[in-house]
Amino acid sequence: MLADIDYNPEPGPDDLRPFLSDWSPHGPRKERRPDHDRQAHAGIRRQAESWHHGLLDSGA
Hints:
With 60 residues, this protein is mainly α. 25% of the residues lie in helices and 0% in strands. The chain is built from 1 helix and no strands. The radius of gyration is 16 Å and the shape is extended.
């Protein structure tokens, strides 16, 4: 049911991964990531950058 969905989940360290490049969300160190992770994270970053708060005024 929709009432059972938590719409305000607490973000965890792994939720930051797409925005940290090669850095670990668990400490100040670099991580080696597979290419498919890099491509997926780039898509997440593009999606986050295109989000805007509120609705655009259509002039109607």
